[in-house]
Amino acid sequence: ECKTITVAPEAGTETLRCRLNKNLSDDVILNTAKRISEAGPFSIKMYFIVGLPGETEGDVDAIIDLTARVRASMEPAWRKRGHDEVITVGVSGFVPKPCTPYEREPFMGIKKVAEKLNRVARGLRSIPRVAYHPESARQAYLQALLSVGDRRLGALLEKVLELGSDWFRAIRETEIDANFYVSRRKGKDEILPWSFIDHGLRAGYLEKELRKSETSKLTPECPPPKEECKRCGEFSGVCIEKNKY
Hints:
The protein has nine helices and four strands, in the order E-H-H-E-H-E-H-E-H-H-H-H-H. The protein has helices at 14-19, 26-39, 57-81, 110-124, 137-148, 153-162, 167-174, 178-182, 205-214; strands at residues 3-10, 42-50, 87-93, 130-134. It has a four-stranded parallel sheet with strand order 1-2-3-4. Helix 2 (26-39) packs parallel to helix 3.
């Protein structure tokens, strides 16, 4: 019986992964995939994101290239075992999250995200035995709306329930300007819906991390819980996720 191990490179290139503060080189990914294939009857599932801040078309194409190279690194062990496994690739659109350095970044848009998802789909067709599972660009848009929306979305949620989960009809009928929340980069001094929450982060920390992201400068991993650390907050033990998104 074949079991699956999940790896989340998130981005196809090392440069974009550094922007996410994910210190994961191509060599590490390929060597890990090789070791997985040699360890037993394992297949691999990889997760990526498109529409990330700073992304280029080359970064999108690199998802295809990295998948092909992962397959090449695993094939020798698979062939020796006499069974060629499936590589599963999941890709979703970037959704800004509150209390992260990317909280003010916009969602790229349904059409653009869908184009990127289709671009990956076309490229993966040339690689044998790859199962592609893209997330709907429309669903990513709704996730972004719920992620960064404010209390005014309460009326939308009631309408969604009334219409049997027809989100886009509900948006039209409530006349909510969803793009105001989703597709717009928020100003540096704009008060965000979650600004009243004390998340323990030092003032200006997220902005500093965003600037570091723009230059692909990594932030070191958080120390073990027992060690004193006030890097991001005024109190030891306060921590945010390592990744910038």
